[in-house]
Amino acid sequence: MKRHILCLTTRLTQNSLIKTLPLSRFLSSKEAIDRRYHLFMLEKKRQYDKVGRIEKIEVQYKGLPNECTLIMNKDISTPYDCARHLSQFHMETSALALIDNTIYWDMHRPLTENCTLELQSFTCADPHQVNRAFWRTCSFMLGACATVAFKDSVPVKLHSFPGPDIRSGSFIYDVDLPSLGNWQPTHQELVTLGAEYVKLARLNEPLERLEVGEDLALEMFVDNEHKTKQIPSIAKANGKVTLYKVGKHVDISKGPMISTTGQIGRVAVTAVHKLNGSEDNDANQLYRFQGVALPTGVTINHFAFSILTDRARKLNTARSPVQRAADCEESESIAMKA
Amino acid sequence: MNQAEVSKLVSKLRIKVPPKHRKLPNPKGPEGRLDKLRKTVTGLIKYERIELNYNRADEARQYAERLISEAIRHGDCHKPTMDTANFWLLEKELVHKLFKVLVPRFENSSVAYTKLYNAPKPQYARVLDKAVLELKGNPYPELGNKQTNNKYFIQNILLDAAKHEYRQAKYAEVANKIGQAGNETSPVNTENAEKLNEKPMSS
Amino acid sequence: MALAIRRSTSDIFCAAKWFIRRDCRVLSTLPEKAEVEVATVTKKEKHIRTRGSRNSALENRFVYPEFLPDPNPNWRNSLREKLERADMLKRRNQIDIPEFYVGSILAVTVADQHSQGKTNKFVGICIERKGCGLRAEFTLRNVVDHQGIEVRYDLYDPTIQIIQVLRLEKRLDEKLFYLRDALPEYSTFPFDMDPEILPEGTPVPLNPVQVKLKPRPWLERWERQDLKGVSNIEEHLKEKDRVRRELRATPWEKYDLMKQYRQTIPIEDQNDIWAEVNSQLQQLHMTRKKMSRKRTFSTPKTQLG
C-alpha cells in the first residue's frame, strides 16, 4: 500500500514538474478527488513527521464529570483524544473545543501548547459557535454530496460557500455544472441528493483539518479554475490555506468545523436554484444547492421540520458570487469567510 | 364501595399512582415483593441513580416517594416513621442520609422527589422495558436534554427565523391590502398608505 | 334496608343463662379497672385534639367520614362526588344525623308502612360503618328475645326519621363483628334505654371493654384479626390454630406504604373537600346545638306532664 502511494506520488510530482496543466484540467472528477486526497494525506504525513521529538503539554480539562489535568502530546494530541480519556459520551457529543475560554478549536486539530480545554456540544448553554460550525460543516458536506451524486458524464466544479447564516434558514453551496445549461431538479432528484447526503453523513467520518502552503493548494485544486482563482486571495494573509477533509473529499474552508459527520442528524436537500451571472464572468451561471439539517439527538416534530424545509426551498439571498462583474473579488472574499 | 381510612393522614404524591399495585411475581408472595422493593429503594437512596426493569422501577419509585414524604412530614423524632425508615432502608447509615440529607434537600420542593426515564433498548430484541430511576438533585450529569427551550439551540433559531419571516410576509400582505383600499377610496391620499406599508416592516 | 338475622346457638343455653346474664352485663360494662383506663385514654384523646386543633377542618374526617370519596381511583368521579356532597348536606338539613362511631349505641326510627303507627324503632350498637357519599351505611346489632338481630341502615335513607345517639362512645376496634360470636349480653340493649348526655366539650370516651367469646365454632377466624376488644380468645385456640396464625401473619403489611396510601385520601385532597363543606357543616352543628338546648328544657316538662 505504501509503495503504491509512493509510486503514485512520484508520478504526480513528475506531472506537476512537467507542468501538464491542460492535461490535469481534463482529469475526471473521480481521479481529481483521489489525487487531492493523496496529496492531502502526504502533506499530513509530512507535517506529522516534522513534529520530531514528542513533547508533553498539560491540558486543564474543565467540565463534567470533574475537572482534571491531562498530559498530552504536543502537536499530535487533539481535543478528541482528550475526550477519549473521559468517556464515550464525551467523544460522541462534543462538537467543538474551547481553548483558553477564547479560541474555538476543531476536535481533530492537534493542540500546540499548554491550555485549558472545554468540550462544547449542541446542548451547551451558549451554542452559538457550535451552531456556526455545524452550519459550515453542513455546507461543506453539501459540496461533497454534490461531487459524488452526479454521473461521471456531468463534470462538477465546486465554487464556494458563504459564511454560515443560520437565520437565513438554509445552508448553501454554489456549484458550477458547465454541462447542464438549464437544469431544473425534479423532486426525485432532490430526494436522491438528500439520500446521498445522508449516506455520506452516516459514514461517521471525522473532519480533519490541515494548513497547507499556497503552492500545494493550487496544485491540489488544479482541476478547478474557481478554486485556483480564490486561493491567492485566501493565502494573502499568511501564505497558508486551511483545508478540510471528510472521507476522500477535500475542500477549502476557514473552519472550525464539528467533530464527525455522524453529528449531522436529520437532513434534507431542499432546492437547487440557478444563479445567473454577468457575461464577462467565465462562470456565467452557478447552481445554488440548498438544504437544512439538525444535529443528531435533536428530535423535532415532522410538522415543524416541514416548516423548516418549506422555508429552505426559497432562494437563499446570500450574496451570489457571480452577480456582478465587480463581484469577482467578492466571491473570493466569500470563500475566505467560509 | 369502601370508606377512606381516616386514622392515617398522608401527603399527596406528586407522581401518577396507578390504581392497582404490581405483584412483581415472587415465590414468597407479598412479603417477597416488599423485599425486592426494599432492595431497590435502598439502592436508590444509596446511589441516587439506578437502572433497572421498568416495572420494578415504577413500583419502587412510589415507595421511595412515600418514604421521603413521610420523612418530611413527620421528621426524625416520630417513632413510627423511624420504624418505617428502618424497615425500608436495609443499610442503616442510609437512615441518617434520609433524614439529614434528603429531607433538607426536598423540604421546599413542590414537585416529585424522583425522576423516571425510559432507558433505551435494542430495537428488535425481546427484552423487558428498562428504566433509569434517580433522585432529583443528584450529583450526576443530566440524563435528558432538559433545556430544550434554550433559544440559542439551532432548532429554535431556525424556527424563530421561520416565524419571523412568516410574520413579515403577513404584515406586508396586510399593509398591501390597506394600501390598495386606500388607493381605491381616495387616490389622493397615497402618502398615508405608504407610511402604513413601512410601519409594520420596521417593527 | 336489609335485615340480617342470626340464630343464637341454642335456646337451652340461653334459657339457662337468662338470670345470670343481667348481672354479668352490669359487671362487664362497669368494671373498676376500666375506669382508670378511661381516664388515661381521655388524656390521650385530649392531646390529639389539641394537636389537631390547628387544622380543625381536617378533624371532620372522624365525624363525617362519608364525605371523603372512595379511595379507589377507578371509582372516582369528581362531579358525582360534588353532587353527592351537596345532596348529603341537603339531607342533613332535613334530619339531624348526629356524630357517632363504631361502638356507639343508637336508636333509629324509620318509616314502616306495615307497622303500627307507621314507624319502626330499633336500638342497637353500631358494629360497622362503611361506604362513602350517599351510599354510606351503618349496621346496628341487638339481641331481642335471645335472638341476635342486625339491621343495616343507609345513613341518607329518606325513610329514616330519627337517628338518636343513646350512648356516644368508641370501642377498641374498627369493626365489632366479633360481637356475633361473643356472649349475648355484650350486644343486648334495652329498647327503652335513656340517652346519656355528655357534658359539652368532653372528648368522645373510649370504652375499653373486652368481650368474652363463646366457644367455637365461630363465624370468622377471630384469632387472626389482631382484635383488641376480645379477652378470652386464647382459651379457645388449639395448638394448630396458633401455628396457622403465625403462618398467616402479615407483619410487613404495616410497612406497605403504598397500600396505606391507596386506602386513604391525601391531605391536599381532603383540604379541598373540607373547604367546600366545612362552613355548612359547622353551621348545621351550631343550629342543632341550639335546638337540643331548647329540647333539654322542654323534655323534662313533657315527662312531668
Please, could you describe this protein's structure?
The complex is a heterotrimer of chains A (338), B (203) and C (305). Chain A is α+β, with helices and mostly antiparallel strands and 338 residues long. Chain A folds into two domains: 56-121, Beta-grasp domain (Ubiquitin-like (UB roll)); 129-208 and 237-337, 2-Layer Sandwich (Threonyl-tRNA Synthetase, Chain A, domain 2), CATH 3.30.980. Helix content of chain A is 40%, strand content 23%. Chain A contains eleven helices and twelve strands. Chain A has helices at 2-18, 21-25, 29-50, 79-86, 88-93, 128-149, 187-202, 214-220, 225-234, 302-313, 327-337; strands at 56-62, 68-73, 96-99, 103-105, 115-120, 157-160, 171-176, 208-213, 240-246, 249-252, 264-276, 285-295. In chain A, the strands form three sheets. Chain A has a five-stranded mixed sheet. In chain A, strands 6-7-12-11 form a four-stranded antiparallel sheet, sandwiched between helices. A three-stranded antiparallel sheet of chain A has the order 8-9-10, sandwiched between helices. In chain A, helix 6 packs across helix 7 (187-202) and helix 9 packs across helix 11. The radius of gyration of chain A is 20 Å and the shape is globular. The relative contact order of chain A is 0.13. Chain B is elongated. Chain B contains six helices and three strands. Chain B has helices at 30-47, 54-74, 79-88, 93-106, 154-185, 190-202, and strands at 49-53, 114-118, 130-135. Chain C has a single domain (2-304), classed as SH3 type barrels. Chain C is built from seven helices and six strands, in the order βααααβββββααα. Chain C has helices spanning 11-29, 32-52, 56-63, 78-94, 239-248, 257-263, 267-304; strands at residues 2-6, 105-111, 119-130, 137-144, 147-154, 160-167. In chain C, strand 4 and strand 5 form a beta hairpin. In chain C, helix 3 packs across helix 7 and helix 4 runs parallel beside helix 7. Chain C starts with a strand and ends with a helix. The model of chain C is unreliable at 1-54 and 301-305 (pLDDT under 50). The chains are: A alpha+beta (338), B mainly alpha (203), C alpha+beta (305). Chains in contact: A-B, B-C. Chains B and C meet through helix 1, helix 2 and helix 3 of B and helix 3, helix 6 and helix 7 of C. Chain C: Belongs to the bacterial ribosomal protein bL19 family. Chain C: GO terms for molecular function: structural constituent of ribosome. Chain C: It comes from Trichoplusia ni (Cabbage looper). Chain C: Keywords: Mitochondrion, Ribonucleoprotein, Ribosomal protein, Transit peptide. Chain C: It is found in: Mitochondrion.
